[in-house]
Structure formats: structure tokens, C-alpha cells
Design a protein that fits this description.
β19 and β20 form a beta hairpin. By secondary structure, this protein is an alpha/beta fold. The strands form five sheets. The protein has a seven-stranded mixed sheet, sandwiched between helices. Strands 6-14-7-8-10-9 form a six-stranded parallel sheet. It is built from 16 helices and 20 strands. It is globular and about 75 Å long. Bound molecules: NADP nicotinamide-adenine-dinucleotide phosphate (NAP). The site of NADP nicotinamide-adenine-dinucleotide phosphate has 24 residues, from α6. The site of NADP nicotinamide-adenine-dinucleotide phosphate (NAP) has 24 residues, from α6.
């Protein structure tokens, strides 16, 4: 038998998840010299691109242009896409071992983290994940309802996802209707009665997790003012020392923008965005089974033994009346059948992208990249180097012969198996039909695309 990775015996890789880290796995594998590789990518949705489609905000179209590079990878004859095929439902690890030498998991972090405060499960309290997926037209979230008749909305957390959520709530229909926001969201937001959007950061301006372009955008709304309390924009001594020592340009720019907002006069626009620092929610107060208010406590910032600046609650409390709260305090990965999972990190247990068991030993054949490997951090491009690291280890293992030994490594037999388990799979050519239909409808409405939000509609177009 010829060596694996040659034209007589191509390296066969299954990639589970079609977001950025899945596609960067493909481009990295294609870059390997003298490697003949066949890659089958699976996604439980009929549409590819993961968070580029269902996470990146609709008013950030530029960030979505990375899909052009993914399309180029997909055009390689060694690549196939199987959408609408779910790992753990239609295909299992034992199946993959029969047809592939290596399996890469790039499934992201679909769950949200909790706040751990009383009232978190009440009606009116949601994860940012749900809202983001809803306005982006993710089929699993298309039917969600958010009470936009509320005048006050609170977003807990101060990362870029919180910024996205607050921006969508603050923008006007005119600002949103030129994007690819889901039609159901545009309709609901056009009826919005929201007047005040509060973003709550538990630490100070120098510890905010958002990036400079995102905070800058908050000062540019057509119909919303940004408010920051001057006292909360002041940098404490510890933070100042850290800023001086680190000279981190992002932190310096964030602080500059925050302080400029704190000094800015209010223009009296119909909506008000309030960005608060050094406050933590302590309770969601109930009335008639739903959230009626959020209780918060003001924090001091103290240095712990490890030199980290931590929020410490004072006895100063406030109450914000609100019936709509979004927690946006980070994501968590979902455990996958037959794949080792690190519960405390919420990631696949791995070293550099090689899956490892409880004793730290490599689990041969299993790899990971992206958020499910390293946790939910970084921008889209971060996944490129992340996938590159894992692919490097996959190549080392290929050289060392540390691979699955598939009984039936032919591409045709894998196709037969997939067809037998999920006859309704969506190929890349099928996805292109969905894509073209969405873009064509978008062109009619002067929008980048109009998203289909029901799997049945997508399958109808794919089969047309
Ligand atoms: P994130 O950047 O990790 O921010 C999470 C925020 O939640 C932090 O401010 C954190 O504060 C706060 N937090 C955590 N636990 C909390 C608690 N119990 N109570 C109050 N606050 C709490 O996460 P993310 O916003 O979900 O974003 C995930 C990744 O996607 C990030 O790397 C982000 O940059 C990226 N992303 C990028 C874009 C973009 O480029 N435009 C858009 C969306 C997302 P502490 O710092 O005090 O822990």
C-alpha cells in the first residue's frame, strides 16, 4: 500500500464544523507541499461559515468578506461539503474511523455562560447568544421573541458581543434595513419602544473587553447618544500603573474614547446608550413571573495575589427597572460524543489541537481548532494561526503514522454512507444555489442578501 498522503492513497480528513477554523483547516492542509488530501466538511446546518453567517453583526458586512477566501478553498477538487449532516446524529466517530485518517473538530462555542445570580432564568432574561442568532437568521432561533416594548434594556458584559447587541438595539430601522439582518428581526425592531440601553461592565475602562473600532462606533448613532458617567471614566491608580507598563494600544485607545464620551454633551437624541463601569448585577427582580428590574452593586477594583485587578462589591446598590436583560459574559463549548472534553474550560481536552484523554495522552486521530480548542476569544483571523498550529501537528502525526487506519478510505464509500444516513445532505453546489437566491433577493431590496431562516426553504432551493 502506498504511503498515506499520495495520489494512490490520499490523506482523508473529516472536518466537523464549517466556520472560520474549519475553513482555515482546509486552506492550511491545501498549503502543504507534496500532500494529496481529501477533505469532507460537515455542518449540522445546510449553510456553511458558522459565526461569519450567524454571529458577525449584520452591520459589519466587511468582516464577512472572508468567505471569498473560503469559497476558493471550497473550489479545490479535494474538498466536499456536507451540510445538514450532524455529528452524533447522522454520523458517529466509529463511522468516521472507517473512512478517514484524521478527524478535526471545529464546532465553536455555541453555549453562553451564566451570571449565577437569582432570577437569571426568569422570562425576559436571555443570553446574547439567542438574540445574536435571532437577528442573524439562524434557523434554530428564528421563532424567538424578545420583549422590545420595554423602555429599558440591560446588557451585562462589556465585550464585543455586548457591543453588537447594544448597537442593534440603538440603531434605527433605516440604519438596519440596508444590512442582511433577518427580516423577522427588522420587523420586530421597527416596533421597538426601547429608549435606554445599559451596558454593564464589572471592571473599569482599562479592563473593557471591547476593541477600539467597536467603542468608537457607539458614538456615531443617528438617533442615540452615548453616556458615560465622568466618575466611572476615571482611571484608578492600579489600572494607570498597568497601562503605563503594558502600553497596550487597544487599551489606550479604548480609554481615550471612553473619556471623550464622558466629557461629551448629550444631544438629546430619542435613544440613550449608558455604558457603566464598576458595576455587577446581583439579582434580577421578579414580578408576575418575569424580570421587572435588575439590582446591581457598585464595585471597587482591587489587585489580587496574582496581580489581577478584580471587582470587589461595595455596599452601594442601584436598581434599574427593566423587563429585558441580555447576559453577554462569554461562550462555552458543547461536549461532543466520543470526544474528550475539559469541563472547566468548556473546550475539547487538547494540547495544541491534539485531543488528549484524562491522563494527558494523545487520542490518536482526533484534532481541534478554533473556539472549541482554545475557548471563545480573538477575532476571525485568530483562527487562522490556531488552525495552522493544529495542522502542523496533524502533519507530524502523518509522518509518524499516528493515524486512524480506515477499513474503507474511498471517497465514494464515504459518500454512500452519508447518503444512507442523511439523504437530504446539502453539497457546496447546493449551498451556492441558496446563496445566489439570497443575494438575488437582496439585490431587489438594495441589501447584501435576504437570509432564508427556515431549513425547509433552504432545502427546497437546494433541490430546485
Ligand atoms: P469577551 O470578550 O470575553 O467579553 C466578556 C465580557 O463579560 C467581559 O467584559 C467580562 O468581564 C464580562 N464578564 C464575564 N463574566 C462576568 C460576570 N459574571 N459578570 C459581569 N461581567 C462578566 O466575550 P464576548 O463579548 O462574548 O466575545 C467573544 C470573542 O468574540 C471576543 O474575542 C470578541 O472580541 C470576539 N468578537 C469580536 C467581534 C468583532 O471583532 N467585531 C464581534 C463579536 C465578538 P471581565 O473582563 O471582567 O472578565
Amino acid at each position: 500500500m502506498s504511503a498515506v498522503g499520495t495520489s494512490e492513497n490520499p490523506l482523508r480528513v473529516a472536518i466537523i464544523g464549517s466556520g472560520p477554523s474549519g475553513f482555515y483547516t482546509v486552506s492550511n492542509l491545501l498549503k502543504q507541499s507534496d500532500l494529496v488530501v481529501e477533505m469532507d466538511m460537515f455542518d449540522r446546518l445546510p449553510t456553511p461559515y458558522g459565526l461569519v453567517r450567524a454571529g458577525v453583526a449584520p452591520d459589519h458586512q466587511k468582516d464577512k468578506s472572508v468567505t471569498r477566501a473560503y469559497e476558493k478553498s471550497a473550489a479545490n477538487p479535494g474538498f466536499r461539503f456536507f451540510g445538514n449532516v450532524e455529528y452524533g446524529t447522522h454520523i458517529h466517530l466509529d463511522d468516521l474511523k472507517q473512512h478517514y485518517h484524521q478527524v478535526m473538530f471545529t464546532t465553536g462555542s455555541p453555549f453562553d455562560r451564566n451570571l449565577g445570580v437569582t432570577g437569571e432564568d426568569l422570562a425576559g432574561s436571555h443570553s446574547a447568544t439567542e438574540f445574536v442568532a435571532w437577528y442573524n437568521g439562524h434557523p434554530d432561533f428564528a421563532d424567538r421573541q424578545f420583549d422590545l416594548s420595554q423602555e429599558n434594556v440591560v446588557v451585562v458584559g462589556i465585550g464585543n458581543v455586548a457591543m453588537d447587541v447594544a448597537r442593534i438595539l440603538c440603531k434605527t430601522v433605516d440604519e438596519l434595513k440596508v444590512t442582511d439582518i433577518a427580516d423577522h428581526a427588522l420587523e420586530a425592531l421597527s416596533q421597538s419602544k426601547v429608549k435606554n440601553v445599559y451596558i454593564l461592565g464589572r471592571r473599569g475602562p482599562a479592563q473593557a473587553a471591547f476593541t477600539p473600532p467597536e467603542i468608537k462606533e457607539m458614538g456615531e448613532f443617528a438617533e442615540a447618544d452615548v453616556n458615560i458617567l465622568p466618575g466611572e471614566a476615571v482611571i484608578d491608580e492600579h489600572s494607570q500603573n498597568q497601562m503605563d507598563a503594558d502600553n497596550d494600544k487597544n487599551v489606550l485607545k479604548n480609554v481615550e474614547t471612553i473619556q471623550s464620551y464622558a466629557a461629551r454633551p448629550n444631544a438629546g437624541k430619542p435613544r440613550q446608550l449608558h455604558i457603566r463601569f464598576l458595576v455587577s448585577p446581583t439579582e434580577l427582580i421578579e414580578e408576575a413571573g418575569a424580570v421587572s428590574a435588575l439590582k446591581l452593586v457598585q464595585n471597587d477594583l482591587l489587585m489580587d495575589d496574582r496581580g489581577q485587578l478584580k471587582p470587589v462589591a461595595t455596599d452601594r446598590e442601584e436598581v434599574i427597572p427593566t423587563g429585558l436583560v441580555f447576559r453577554s459574559v462569554g461562550y462555552r463549548g458543547q461536549p461532543l460524543p466520543d470526544v474528550p472534553f475539559n469541563e472547566s474550560w468548556g473546550t475539547i481536552a487538547n494540547e495544541g489541537g491534539r485531543a488528549v484523554d484524562a491522563s494527558g495522552q494523545q487520542v490518536v486521530g482526533l484534532y481541534t481548532a478554533g473556539w472549541i480548542k482554545r475557548g471563545p476569544s480573538g477575532v476571525i483571523g485568530t483562527n487562522k494561526t490556531c488552525a495552522q498550529e493544529t495542522v502542523g501537528l496533524m502533519m507530524e502525526d502523518l509522518q509518524a503514522g499516528r493515524l486512524f487506519e480506515p477499513a474503507d478510505p474511498g471517497a465514494d464509500s464515504a459518500l454512500e454512507l452519508i447518503r444512507s444516513r442523511q439523504p437530504d445532505f446539502v453539497s457546496f453546489a447546493d449551498w451556492k444555489k441558496i446563496d445566489e437566491a439570497e443575494v438575488a433577493e437582496g439585490a431587489r431590496q438594495s441589501r447584501p442578501r435576504v437570509k432564508m431562516t427556515q431549513v425547509t426553504d433552504m432545502l427546497d432551493v437546494a433541490r430546485s
